[in-house]
Amino acid sequence: MLMVGYINPHHPFDPPAPYSTMYDPKALTQLPGYLPQPLACDVETNGTAMKYEQLSEDDIRAITAAYYAMITEIDDAVSRLIALLREKNLYDNTMIIFTSDHGEYMGFHHMMLKCNHLYDPLARIPLLVKYPQHIHLPQNDTRLTENIDIAPTVLDVCGLPVPDTMQGRSLFDEKSREFVFPKGSMGQRNSRAWVICFAQAALSCSCAAVWSEQCCLIWNKIHLKWRTWQNTRTIWRRKKNCKKS
Fold this sequence. Notes:
The chain is α+β, with helices and mostly antiparallel strands.
């Protein structure tokens, strides 16, 4: 097993040449969820040193261009690894998993970095799996998953039993998750007794969320507040000073 970890894309958003000039900030389109000014409720719970209200649109465009450049840098690096596997005739029988630990606001609600509410851009991360040729066909899977599902999936592919101590669920399991439970600072956990699980976890981490296919419940320890919204379009409830977005 080979694990390759890339720090980028990540702040301080400083891609090397030639990637640093690859994207023109002025030519970029703002990503979905961008707002010209941050919401008061997001400023209130900002856990970063970056002041949302001081960010201009040009700042966000420049950071986005640098972020795209770092993504392209990683694309090229992964391409070299895949080319080597092909060269050594190992590609067809190799399982490749590409994922991340968290996302990036990148202008969503006029926010940058992370360390705040677990909105879609932060909680939804890539999970790309290339199975050995004889095991699986390419497809899009829209089911809810967590990073803890990766290890059981690898064991399944290897024909090994999944220990009862593992809380994850193999991607070969046809049964879909009712919900997932991401949280900040303390990793992830899943349980059908989600109310108890959520309440216990909220006492030990800065932010947490319960996701289902229809909605999301957010906890932020900084101000001990609950927030809910629909996944399909971010609609705030139970919070003044927050508008539909």
